[in-house]
Design goal:
heterodimer; A: 111 residues; mainly beta; six-stranded mixed β-sheet; five-stranded antiparallel β-sheet; globular; B: 115 residues; 0% helix; 54% strand
Amino acid sequence: QKEVEQDPGPLSVPEGAIVSLNCTYSNSAFQYFMWYRQYSRKGPELLMYTYSSGNKEDGRFTAQVDKSSKYISLFIRDSQPSDSATYLCAVTQGGSEKLVFGKGTKLTVNP
Amino acid sequence: DAGVIQSPRHEVTEMGQEVTLRCKLISGHNSLFWYRQTMMRGLELLIYFNNNVPIDDSGMPEDRFSAKMPNASFSTLKIQPSEPRDSAVYFCASSLGGARGNTIYFGEGSWLTVV
């Protein structure tokens, strides 16, 4: 079993839709949870980061962590064509800079 | 701020040739990461350094791969000899060195094709 599982999609939605992206992880020692966004032919860039269970909101984006079920989510409200990218979840243990990434979900938002 | 700078952006080489990928860290950063991205395996950490010292090289595939930091702002990843299965996008990333991994900045990648 991979440490982080992520549905690769692709996911295609109309502009304005609510998008839900999800990952599961296997190691309960992971404490820090991140979402990266990667545009085509670019490097990943940090979008959201959360520590432990709970929600974190930043504009149209909400990151959610449920440590009891080892499940992390990213919600995008009022999705825009500019949100079209691959979204990668990443996890790490406290005290470590070693990120473990999911494979990424490719999202297309159609105008 | 210039960001993490990688070169070359694209490289096509023949099997058996040596490949050298280069990376310049963001000024003031002291952790350096090399990642490889493929469709099959996603984004994988190959090696990372902190203050020029290799901390974890468990992701380096085999002895054909080597990475160095000759100084605090520069790193190289070398593949010798290269093989077609090494074809991938190689990303360099840097951070301030915090424990939480939330400040890692990626370069734009080096696209390697080995034929």
